[in-house]
Structure formats: structure tokens, C-alpha cells
Amino acid sequence: MLDYKLLQASAEVIRHGSFEKAARDLGLTQSAVSQRVKLLEERLGQPVIIRAKPIAATVAGQRLLQHYQSVRLLEQELLDEMPDIQSDGGYGQVALAVNADSLATWFVDVPKYLFDQLGLLVHLKVGDESLNHSALQDGTVLGAVDMRSTPIQGCRVRPLGMMRYVMVVSPEFNARHFANGVTADALRSCPAVNFSEHDELQNQFLKQYFGLNPGEFPAHTIPSSQGFVTVAEQGIAYAVVEQHQAEEALRTGRLIRPCPFEIDRPLYWHHKTIQSRLLDQVNEIVLSQARRFLPKITT
Question: Model confidence at 202, in pLDDT bands (50, 70, 90)?
Fold first, then answer.
């Protein structure tokens, strides 16, 4: 039998990527958390954590984390169905992965609904929509927004909708850099804004419409969806943003679209195939929010 106090400590270390943060979250000393992890590993006869920076789970640790998350969901369901049963008085928890643009737009109210309707504390892992599947594979989340339409092992995939991206600039930036239109030469000499060094969306847009490769244009790096809009409004870069994020600025004239080009990116919801009514409710809240805001994926 697994000792769930030991499993909980190990799961929190993996989720936080840190003994210190896990200890703070559990209300324990760092030494106590370390001892629990070590004791679990001794009982299993193998490591569950790769002690590096950042901390990561071994294959065994990933399996244990998935098991722990499943047990927590089932426990929360039991408490909901039997309100007189004694509990520690804490909230249920769910970990999900989402891309920054979704979090800034259609996903923004999902944590509120998960808390108000299901009593869940939400832990979001914010990453690139082309990479979120890895968080499912390593067991750190139960559901993820991702661009892939193919499910990974142990998961189901469902369509969310399309996100449309457009280029925006301030009127002053447009007059200064695009007086003769948006061309490859003009883009080589004025700054863009990237979310990270691996901004595939920006790279796809500039390659598809202007034949530019990464490294052929200067760029700021601002890891914030709203920061993209702000930087564009400040007139220090052009930005390729999700159209709803720039809607108000476009309407008031603080931003304009210097070219008509657009990119549509399909999004899919991947989630664990755990037999859990609570996880089904989590999935339905995510899917209902997507249906409200995102156009359907077209083939």
C-alpha cells in the first residue's frame, strides 16, 4: 500500500519543481518534505524525482503523480456526494496547461467557474500551445490546450476552436516604418515583438507572407500576451496578436492593421481518460467557454 502523505509530498515537489515551494504549500519544513520523498523512494526501490534544476519527475514519478491526481479527484467527488463525511476542510485541486493567448481571452473565466461551481483550486501551467502536450505526458496536468489534433497515450482530444492572429502597429509606427507598405525589406529594419526565443507564431506569419526566417528581423522578447498589445501601442514594435486582444485598441484607433494578412490556429483540449465525474465537469466548463468565444475549426 502507498503511504499517501509520502506520495503527496513527492507530487507537490514535482508540481512546483522545488522542495522549498512544496514545503511552503504543505506547511512543512523543507527537511520534512525531503525526508518523505526519500522514504517513498526507499519503499519503491527507485527514484521518483530527478534532482536537477528544475526538478523533474522520473518515469515512475510521472506515473505516481498521475495516480495521485486521480485519487484526489475521486476523493473530492466522494466529499461532494457525502457532505457529512469528515475531511481536512481543504479545497479540491486541478492542474491544467494553457497558452498565454487563451488565458488572456476565452479561458480567462475558467478558473472562476471551476472554483465557484466545483470548489476547485486551479493551478495553471502557462506555456506554448504547441508544447503543452508535454505537461500531460509528464503527469503534471490533467488537461491541456494544445495545437495537436492527435491524442497522446492515455488522453482524449476534443476540438476547441480557432484563434485568429493579425498584425497590429501604432499609427506613428506605421507612418515611420511602413509608409510604402509592409514589405520584407521594411520588416528587416524595424523591431517585432516575440513571446520567446521560440515564437513559432511570429515565425510562421513572417515566413508565410514575407519569406523571412528567424534571425532576419530584430525583435523584443516580451513573454506576455497583453504585453504584446502594450508594446505595439507604445510604438516600439509591430506585433502579431490574437484579434480579440487588440479589438478595443483597434476600435479606438490606438492601433491599426498595416496589412490584411491573418493566421488561424486550431486549438484542441487534451485531457486524461480518468473515469471521474469531476473531471468530466472540468472538461465541460472548458469546452463551453471555448464554444462561447471561438469559431469552429474548419477543415
Answer: confident
pLDDT digits (tens, 9 = 90+) for 129-140: 666 777 788 778
Quote the strand ranges of 132-252, DSSP E: 143-146, 155-168, 192-194, 219-221, 239-242
Buried b (16+ CB within 10 A) or exposed e, 232-268: bbebebbbbbbeebbeebbeeebbbbbeebebebbbb
User: Which three three-digit cell numbers place residue 6?
Assistant: 509520502
- Give the H/E segment covering residue 269: strand 262-272
Packing angle between helix 4-16 and helix 59-81, nearest 10 degrees?
Answer: 110
CA contacts within 13 A on the Cβ side of 5: 8
Question: What does pTM read for this prediction?
Answer: 0.76
**Average pLDDT over every residue of 61-90:** 70
What's residue 59's pLDDT? Answer: 84
- 55: its cell numbers: 526538478
Strand ranges (E), 56-154: 56-57, 92-98, 120-126, 143-146
Stated as kind and residue range, the H or E segment containing 263 is strand 262-272
